[in-house]
Amino acid sequence: MEDHFELAGVKYRSRLIVGTGKYKDFAETKKAIEVSGAEIVTVAVRRVNITDPNRENLLDYLDPKRYTILPNTAGCYNADDAVRTCRLAREAGVGKLVKLEVIGDDKTLFPDIPATLEAAKILVQEGFVVLPYITDDPVTAKKLQDIGCAAVMPLAAPIGSGLGIRNPYNIRIILEQATVPVIVDAGVGTASDAAIAMEMGCDGVLMNTAIAGAKDPILMAEAMRLGIEAGRKAFLAGRIPKKLYATASSPLEGILG
Amino acid sequence: MDGRREYGFFVQMKIRINGEEKEIKEGLSLAALLDEFQIRPGRVVVELNRDIITREAHGSTALKEGDALEIVHFVGGG
């Protein structure tokens, strides 16, 4: 069966979006991404080290013709900085997709929602394809969808925490009202977390630390690919309802007397 | 001319690059500066005094005393 993940008019086979941070080196980054099957990868925008500019560049390892590059606004604490970062990213010539994250608190890395809404409005007006990172709040998701964001990306749990989906009921409500893709972004710890998001009907999952921080990132990248695929297929297949008591799997007729 | 100093034939001027003060030759273009710092123009985006300078304009953009440059690129991130 043909099953595509469609984002801003582009069809993708993979529903896994991966980050490129925290890997040992670019070679490991490249290998993990290949094994994960992801077609969209996030990157950050940072100052070049001008005293040592000749170091290798991430894009030497990730061909923008092969991967959709999704620049983020990580490290931005207000709307102005986030918009400025997106404009710089667009000038790099890798497209109009941006992962908007405006951080509101250092300890939890929870987003500043008013600033996220403010930045989203400006960016949508400027023609960006905006994917905002948000808390698992259905009201915020609805507002961002109405502004014209191309997807909404509620967190499963705090960034890098590995706690998995903490509030599946809110994610369900977000899914119910969504007219744009819902991508669970951040907080996934292991393959079953990713599978749960997909089983619930989420359109995709974005993760970084869960893969890059695993003891064996390459093996975890494969586990995540399989977790996403398993969860998606289970969602499409339609699970059985949960029941309190047993229903026999073997026929009750013809039992030995 | 505040901040400018002569070294032999060259007049130096001070600019800020990524928050650091640097002395460079007066009249240097942005393209020449990137070349001097061995920065590949195809892998970076440059902001001059908060305005983005397109790659096509690097050669025709002359730097002047007190300019503030931000030179950024993509790094690993989530």
Explain what the structure shows.
The complex is a heterodimer of chains A (257) and B (78). By secondary structure, chain A is an alpha/beta fold. Helix content of chain A is 36%, strand content 16%. Chain A is built from eight helices and ten strands. A five-stranded parallel sheet of chain A has the order 5-4-3-10-9. A three-stranded parallel sheet of chain A has the order 6-7-8. A two-stranded antiparallel ribbon of chain A has the order 1-2. In chain A, helix 3 (113-125) packs parallel to helix 4 (138-147), helix 4 runs parallel beside helix 5 (168-177) and helix 6 packs parallel to helix 8. The longest helix of chain A has 21 residues, at 217-237. The N and C termini of chain A lie far apart (46 Å). Chain B is mostly beta strands. Chain B has one helix and six strands. Chain B has one helix spanning 30-36; strands spanning 5-7, 10-17, 20-25, 45-48, 51-53, 68-76. In chain B, strands 1, 2, 3, 4, 5 and 6 form a six-stranded mixed sheet that branches. In chain B, strand 4 (45-48) and strand 5 form a beta hairpin. The longest helix of chain B has 7 residues, at 30-36. Chain B is globular and about 50 Å long. Chain A binds chain B through residues 19-23, 29, 42-48, 50, 53-54, 57-59, 69, 71-72, 74, 84, 87-89, 91-92, 94, 159, 186, 206-209, and chain B through 17-20, 22, 37-40, 43-45, 47, 50, 52, 54, 70-78. Strand 4 (40-47) of chain A pairs antiparallel with strand 6 (68-76) of chain B, so a sheet runs across the interface.
